[in-house]
Specification:
110 residues; mainly alpha; Methane Monooxygenase Hydroxylase, Chain G, domain 1
Length: 110
């Protein structure tokens, strides 16, 4: 059985990978909305899916923040905290880009 610290570090690593994957998917969805969506029904569906991705991303970021307290090394804690903050800022940017993409798509549809 792995020591608690190793489990925490492994969990943080896995969460980081999941966050990067979800972030990439969200960005692709936002780009798709901006470039390809040309009717209200598709816009509604794609926006809902993007919001779900962003909500899941936020949840994973919160989980990553919670893992920091279980890490034994101060250095690991600091690194994970910094990663979580960067991911939080990226999430806020993605949310803003989704708003902009939705507004752009509505203008094109009109």
């Amino acid at each position: 059985m792995a020591p608690i610290s190793d489990r925490g570090a492994l969990e943080a690593h896995i969460l980081h990978q999941e966050i990067v994957r979800l972030d990439t998917m969200a960005k692709q969805k936002i780009d798709y909305i901006m470039e390809k969506v040309r009717d209200e029904k598709a816009l509604h569906e794609e926006t809902r899916e993007a919001k779900d991705l962003l909500a899941s991303l936020g949840s994973k970021i919160d989980m990553l923040k919670a893992v920091t307290s279980r890490l034994s090394s101060r250095r690991e804690q600091q690194n994970v905290r910094e990663n979580a903050e960067r991911h939080s800022k990226e999430l806020a940017e993605n949310q803003q880009q989704l708003r902009s993409a939705t507004i752009h798509a509505r203008r094109v549809i009109s």
